[in-house]
Amino acid sequence: MGCSQTDTGEPEFFGSNFSISSCIQHAGNGGALESFMENKMKINELSPDMAKHFLDSSEGKAWSMTSPDGSYTVTYKENGVCTVFIKETNVQRYIKHMNENIKRISNKTDWKFSTNAIPMFAGEEKLQTYELSVKLPNKNIKIVISAVNKVTGNYQVAFSTILM
Asked: How far is the C-alpha of 137 from the C-alpha of 40, rounded, in Å?
């Protein structure tokens, strides 16, 4: 489940894959996430001062990158919460690609999602949240996606996971 870009030409495709590759595959394992970010993705860790903004007064680490696919920050808090923040994106296309990933992954692996499709839940100007879960062979994960259609702050989508 890599997050390599394809010929879709849509940054939201990368964003949905990156969310899954970062926070679902590495849920509950900060060391594996750190290795994935730094060794496989070659993403730089933020300084502690810069990371504080995304960690919300919690201890942890944060990595940030800007690419043709967008601006992303990934955090891992000491309590095990992993979050991918996407600065600007088309939320409707992000959800479309996330739904395609859910279907593809459900058909090809033994991962079991609590829904077959995420509805278009994002608020027009106010951040809204949608929750789902996924059962992997060795762990259960709660997923919380927050999104807003209008760019109003530092990010439009936050994709978070924590072990249940």
From this structure: 24
Quote the pTM value. Answer: 0.92
Crossing angle of helices 91-108 and 11-19, rounded to 10° = 50
Q: What angle do CA 62, 28, 78 make, to 5 degrees?
A: 50
Query: Residue 133: which pLDDT band, with cuts at 50, 70 and 90?
Result: very high
Given a cut of 80, whether residue 6 has pLDDT beyond it is no
**What is the helix, strand, coil percentage profile of the chain, to 5?**
30, 30, 35
CB atoms within 10 A of CB 76: 27
Residues 133 and 118: their CA atoms lie apart, in Å, by 11
Taking residues 137-157, what's their average pLDDT? Answer: 91
Terminal Cα-to-Cα distance of the chain (whole angstroms): 22
Cα separation, 14 vs 66, in Å, equals 12
The Cα 73–Cα 154 span in angstroms is 10
Q: What are phi and psi of 52, to 5 degrees?
A: -55, -40
SS3 category, 46: coil
Q: What is the DSSP letter of 47?
A: P
Q: Which strand (E) or helix (H) includes residue 13?
A: helix 11-19
